[in-house]
Structure formats: structure tokens, C-alpha cells
Amino acid sequence: MANNDDQFKKVISHAKEYGYVFQSSEIYDGLSAVYDYAQNGAELKKNIRDYWWKAMVQMHDNIVGIDAAIFMHPTTWKASGHVDAFNDPLIDNKDSKKRYRADVLIEDYCAKLEAKIDKEVAKAAKRFGEAFNKDEFVSTNGRVLGYQEKIDTILSRMAKSLENEDLADVKALIEELEIADPLSGSKNWTDVKQFNLMFGTKLGASADTAMDLYLRPETAQGIFVNFLNVQKTGRMKIPFGIAQTGKAFRNEIVARQFIFRMREFEQMEMQFFIKPGTQKEWFEYWKETRLKWHKSLGMGDDNYRFHDHEKLAHYADAATDIEFKFPFGFKELEGIHSRTDFDLKQHEEYSGKKLQYFDHEDNASYTPYVLETSIGLDRMFLAVFSNALVEEELDNNTTRTVLKLPAVLAPFKAAVFPLVKKDGLPEIAKKIVDDLKWDFNVFYDEKDAVGKRYRRQDANGTPFCITVDHDTLEDNSVTIRHRDTMEQKRVKIDDLRDIIKKEVDVKEWLMRM
Fold this sequence. Notes:
alpha+beta
């Protein structure tokens, strides 16, 4: 566990040192759980967003995108259930005076049991070598089965208690498991209480007439209230989807783990409107399609898993998470939910407007069912960044820190160096930059020895370094170095665009799906 903690500290430190993520308002000692994306972070974030948009909207004939406002009529949140039921179960420790999410304390306890399972698997793999069958071991080993049964029993009980709003049993579970405050070790807990997560604000010039509003806690409702507008103006036929990316706001009491859980965050969501009765096949389709999108980035198939929900929202008939192995364990990265017709029916009821679809084939009107895919852009950023950061031992007994970002997402695709700052080499290097920047984000660097410049770009995640030397003056060729292999090749300046494009082109990556 300590190794994972150390790795996570390195991720946070590297993100700041190389201009990816800064603490918000740092000169005023920061604001808890609020972060700014720095110059390289803004590029990486944009590239992830574009990669999602390209796959979700551009590559599907029946999915369109919108950009709904953050402010919405307050009745929206009454209809959606957020005013009455958007709560987290919170518990305070009487000794440390710290506040925690009760469900997270219990999930963290289960994560420790999962770590014990991983340890048993690792020990057995070492013992049996190539003959080791992980699936067989996990399904037959008594100790592993015992841990798994305990995890299942705990999570099932917690889900049931939260569903029944039996907060006393949630506290009883924490006490029975002897869960202590992670900071002080104290087991002196208050009762569990519900806390609404929406940020309130006012709309209007006068305090007397101002309307109470909320900052949206999710982006989905902007899609639902625009369902008919989009369907009619786009002449969309079911099945069809509406996608959007945008900011959402939640007053997280236990915001933690860097940008994993923030108070201001960005979502990438798609609501897919379907004929009632077809939801099961579409649920399976989107599960498979979304996992393929994640795997297309080449971040290791073993780092993903599905986690089916024990506790379903009252309106849902299926829900699963795609979990990713972060430095602090497997956690939710994307949710896929079968929401039935709850959303549109609620907005129909509260608005008094008909939100139905007339199906010409069936010659009948109905309220469509909805299949949702929802991914946190900030979590995706953290998954990509933490997975990419590695320290490598080199043949000459030195180490290098390299950020092996998927090339399609890297902030800069290439860095161009003149070997020395004279003899006309900077001029050639700058001309190469000027030519390439029409197609790619390219960086120019002439400071320090070339070896140091290579190391800087490795740590920044740049896939290619291009060096202009004295031979370039004679043969119009340059040395191109690949970040991951450190392999160097002599190539013609005229071939650079095609070489880079092959490695970083979105099509090359998405075709892997």
C-alpha cells in the first residue's frame, strides 16, 4: 500500500512540476478540492475531450452534441429528484472532529480486503510460476473465497441499508467492522446523517425578488429538457443519442484523492433514447462499446473491470461502472445506466409539456427509455496521467522519468531542437516548427545540452524529439527520437509530417476499437 501512496504522491508532484495541474488560488493558500489545469494540463484535457467527442458524436450518425447552460430553471432539480434525494451519508468522528462519507469508509475497508486477495494471488503466482491459473485459484482458494464472501456481505448490507434509508444500520456496520478514523485511529463516531450536495445561488438584481437557483450537479438534465427540441430540429429517429461535455458542481464534504473527487468538475455524458423493451440489448452494446473506447488508448486491459451496482436507483433497471486501477485501487471511471423512462416522465409531469416520440413505423406515441453513458473528464485525466508516469532503469545504470501518454492525447506531439544556437541551425529548426504547427502542437527548445532536452520532453510526455544538426545543412535530414523506445533515426525533413501523423492520428487510435 505504501508503494501505491508513494506513486500517487509522485503523480501529484509531477503534475505540478511539469505544468499540468495547480492548486487553485495557490497564492492565497488554495481552495480545498479545487484545482486549475495548467498550460500542459489544459492541452491534455482538451485532447481527451476531443477523443471522446470524435468517437461518440462524429463517428455515430445518430448521435448529436449540445452545450446546455449551467443555470437551469429550479423546478428542473425538483423533477430530477436532486432537491429531495441528492444526499451523501456523512459521519463525524467525535475525537478528531473530521467528517467522512460513511459509505466511503466502508468501501475503503473492503478495498483493504481486496488488497489481501491480491496479495494471496501474487504469492500463488510466484509459487506456481507459468502453471498458475488465476481464475481457478480465485474460485477455489479457501482464504480468497472467505475474503470475497466478507466483501460481498458487507457491500450488500450497506446497499440495502442506504436504499431503505436505515442510517442507524450503516453506523452499526461501521462499529461492527471496528472501522477507525484514518487520521486519529479513534472509533468514537456520531450518528450518520444525510447532506444535500447541491450548491445554491441567486438569480436577479434585487435580494427581495431574486430566484433561488442551483449550480447543476450533473449535465444530464440539460439533455433531457432539450429532448424534443433536438429531436424535432434534427429530425432524429429513435434510437438516437444526445451528447455533451461540461462543468458540474457538487458540495463534496469528503473531496479527496487530488482531482479524482472535486467540487467543480467536468462530465462527458451521452443519453441514448430508445424504444421501451430494447434497453437490455442497448445496455450490453454500450457496455462493450465504451470499454473498447477505453482500451483503444492502450493503457493495459488488466487495468479495467466492470462493477455491477448492488444498489440500483429506484428508476433504473441496470447499472454498471467501468472501474480503472488508479494508484489507490480500482475506482469508478465511467457509469453505464439503463434509466427507463423516468427522466422524461418526471419533466413531463413537472412542466406540463408532452415529451413523447411519435414512431411512424408503429404509428404510436411513447415516452422513450434512456441508456446513459457518463464519464468524468477529470477522472479520465487522472487515469491517463497516473498510468503514464513511470521511472525506467537504463542500461547505463541511470534512471529516467517518462510520461508515456498515449501519443494521440499528448499536449505536444513533437519538440524541435537545434543542436547548437548558431551556424543557421535555429533558423532551420524554427522553420520546421512553423511548417508542422499547422497540423500538430509543436514545441521549440534550444536551452541546455540535447540530452537534458530529451529528458525534459520525456517527462512532459512528448512522443517525438527532432534534432537539427550540421549534417542537416548538407542532406536536409534530421534525427528523430521516439520517446518510448529512445530509438533514433535519420529522416528527411519532408517526411516528418507523415511519420508524426501515423503515430498521433485519431483515426489510427480509434480504429483499434
